[in-house]
Amino acid sequence: MREVIVAGVGITRFGKFLERNLKSLSEEAVSAALTDAGAQPHQVDQVFFGNAAAGLVTGQEMIRAEAALRNTGLDGKPMFNIENACASSSSAFHLAWLTIASGQAETALVIGCERLSHEDKRVSFEVFARAVDLEEPLPEGYQAGSGSLFMDLYAAKARKWMEATGGTREDFARVVVKSRRAAHLNPIAQFRNETTVEEVLASRMISDPLTLFMCSSIGDGAAAVLLCSDEFARKLEVKPVRVRASAIVTARTSGEREPVAVIASRKAYEIAGLGPQDLDVVELHDASAPAELIHYENIGLCEAGGAIGLLRSGATDIGGRVPVNPSGGLLSRGHPIGATGAAQIVELTQQLRGQCGPRQREGARVALAENNGGQLAGDSAVACVTILSV
């Protein structure tokens, strides 16, 4: 397997943009990534396009990449449409990485793009309701009522986690305060106003114990990543960010079961020859505030039951030992689902290059991204973990 390099990254602002479409968002991200790498469209060998919801939101099916990218100069290139719930563009990244590592291409462009905004909010919420096995009974402890299936699912997990660990609503609020503080420093983030624990707790209840600020929002945006071989990177004269590992796991539905995030992170650590103690900065899937705390344990940042202490210590805040979601994460940077995985890679690449200004983790050399998607058998349906280094 050959070494694979992140040569260029690009990202749009995240937010609600009813006036924009997949073409507009994709074109901006692609142009930014190619410019960042000093590359031209004709130098791209293959294209991997991550999108989860266009079929439900806009009606565009089957040729999403071909339609969205027709004006980018990439027409005529091999294009692959990747749909894998919220892990669509991290799955696209994984396939692009494999393509270059195996010697099948010198370059591959990964795009994650989503427009979830719709004049009828019911259309947007319906997207998430389809990311489950529709024939599977809902898990024990689930209580409907918020209008958002996934926030009700996260609320059930949060209640279970609180009972097991002694965690509180205030701990979830602290995650949001940390997230908003980071997003305030990120010019592309959807929610940039800082907040307080009291304001988070006072925001509208969505699904007990989750208040509005504890839930990721509907949003639009795109991110792009140009991958290439080490030899091609030398031609571009870029500062190399190396892909040390990429691992994807889907949920087991029988037999011995561990959370997919645990298994995917373990595999990634094995591939990279690294461990959680080596990480300098992390982007993980905080679709709700408690999810961040749960994933601290899943990816090995702390022992089981240690997430509350880790959060309260400040170690995962900007300026801490291992900042988590310095972009603002899904809670504050935003969560246009098909773009989220690629957006994590953009942030971590910029962190490893030292380009993140006041939210920079000084001396960052190793970074990890963890991205989930869907719900199956009481767990995320899929988890993708990527490790990068300089």
Automatic annotation (TrEMBL):
Residues 261-379 form the Thiolase C-terminal domain. It is an enzyme of class 2 (transferase). InterPro entries: Thiolase, Thiolase-like, Thiolase_C_2, Thiolase_CS, Thiolase_N. Its EC number is 2.3.1.176. PROSITE patterns: THIOLASE_2 (PS00737). One of its GO terms (molecular function) is acyltransferase activity. Keywords: Acyltransferase, Lipid transport, Lipid-binding, Transferase, Transport. The keyword Zinc does not apply. It comes from the Bacteria. PANTHER family: ACETYL-COA C-ACETYLTRANSFERASE, NON-SPECIFIC LIPID-TRANSFER PROTEIN-LIKE 2. This is propanoyl-CoA C-acyltransferase.
